[in-house]
Amino acid sequence: MFKRKGIQMLSVQPDAKPKGCAGCNRKIKDRYLLKALDKYWHEDCLKCACCDCRLGEVGSTLYTKANLILCRRDYLRLFGVTGNCAACSKLIPAFEMVMRAKDNVYHLDCFACQLCNQRFCVGDKFFLKNNMILCQTDYEEGLMKEGYVSQVR
Ligand SMILES: [Zn+2]
Ligand SMILES: [Zn+2]
Ligand SMILES: [Zn+2]
Ligand SMILES: [Zn+2]
User: Fold this and answer.
1) Do 3-79 and 83-149 show the same overall fold?
2) Which candidate, 95, 98, 75, 73, places its Cα nearest to that of 85?
3) Predicted pLDDT at 153
4) Separation of 95 CA from ligand 4 center, angstroms?
5) pLDDT per residue over 65-82, tens digit each?
6) What are the pLDDT digits (tens) for 99-123?
7) Comparing C-alpha atoms, which of 53, 57, 28, 59 is closest to residue 41?
8) 67: which residues sit within 8 A by CB, 6+ positions away?
9) Ligand 2: distance of its center to the CA of 32 in Å?
10) CA separation for the pair 13, 15 (Å, rounded)
11) Any stretches that span the bilayer, and where are they (predicted)?
């Protein structure tokens, strides 16, 4: 599991012995340095492994595991949760494949007609009605009951 860590920005005392940067191994001679993971860093050296953003500026937290350091945004993108499945309302982990329909996300297993449980294949039409996924048959049947279809056709 990744750990969430804070980042501190410290000002360097002019008479203090320069600290080595954990990123580039050079001495830090700037006026400010970052302290994170019990190490010291140049402001430019503490970066997200994914998007290269400077972590001292981004909300001052980082996520780390072994030598990998990520910003919050990438961490959430890679390891966060996608949201709740609109069908079973359980959480969907970000790694899982999902189906999307409008603003809703679904587990692959949950993405089926909610009336007849028919699964959809690629290219199949599906419909969203009152936030329920419906196959074409059930959708049209529903419309028929409401008397719309005769007007549409
Ligand atoms: Zn450095
Ligand atoms: Zn990033
Ligand atoms: Zn689900
Ligand atoms: Zn159906």
Assistant:
1) yes
2) 98
3) 46
4) 28
5) 888 999 988 888 887 777
6) 888 888 899 889 999 999 999 887 8
7) 28
8) none
9) 22
10) 6
11) none
Domain borders along the chain are: 3-79, 83-149
Minimum-distance ligand to the CA of 108? 3
4 within 8 A of 59, measured Cβ to Cβ: no
3-state secondary structure 16-31: CCCCECCCCCCECCCC
Report the 10 Å Cβ neighbour count for 89.
8
Which among 63, 61, 60, 10 has a CA at the least distance from the CA of 34? 10
What's the confidence (pLDDT) of residue 54?
A: 93
Environment of ion ligand 3 (residues, CB < 5 A): 85, 87-88, 107, 110
Q: 3-79 belongs to which homologous superfamily? A: Cysteine Rich Protein (2.10.110.10)
DSSP state of 109: G
Kindly report the CATH number that applies to the domain delimited by 83-149.
2.10.110.10
Distance in Å, CA 34 to ligand 2 centroid: 17
